[in-house]
Amino acid sequence: MVLFNRFGKSVYRLCGSAFYDFHGKPRGFLVGDTIYDLRGQHRGFFTKGVAWDRMGRALGFIDEAQSNGLRLPMAEIPPVPYRNLPAPPVPAEVADRPKPTLVPAWSMMQLENLLI
């Protein structure tokens, strides 16, 4: 599935439990509802089709997202992805974390910077 930023631009793809950019490079993991980068650092949450930062503000969404009061833009047609490189194993120390209260407002952080 494709994740779009707050302007509807396609940024990442979620394939199984791995996030990829459109060059096929793995960028992070989804463990339960918790988003981690490749180093195992907690970066945010993914629930009901919306990516949230650690403070509970929206970063991006998928086509089937349930916005709960958040205005979602029109999504652009994503580019054709490159072939995915193998994702590294999920770090053993990561676990699903409790979510903060989710606020139907856009984060100051950009989805493009979530998994760099």
Write a structural description.
This protein has 116 residues and is an all-beta fold. The protein has one domain. The protein has an eight-stranded antiparallel barrel with strand order 1-2-3-4-5-6-7-8. A hairpin with a 4-residue loop joins strand 5 and strand 6. The radius of gyration is 13 Å and the shape is globular. The two termini are 19 Å apart. The model has no long low-confidence stretch (mean pLDDT 93).
Mean of residue pLDDT values: 93
Distance between the termini: 19 Å
Question: What would you call the quaternary organization?
Answer: single chain
Number of discrete domains: 1
The shape is globular
Rg over alpha carbons: 13 Å
Helix count, DSSP H or I runs of 4 or more residues: 0
Low-confidence stretches: none
The portion of residues assigned to helices is under 10%
Main-sheet strand order equals 1-2-3-4-5-6-7-8
Which structural class matches the secondary elements? Answer: mainly beta
What is the percentage of strand-forming residues?
A: 35-45%
Written as H for each helix and E for each strand, in order along the chain, the element string is EEEEEEEEE
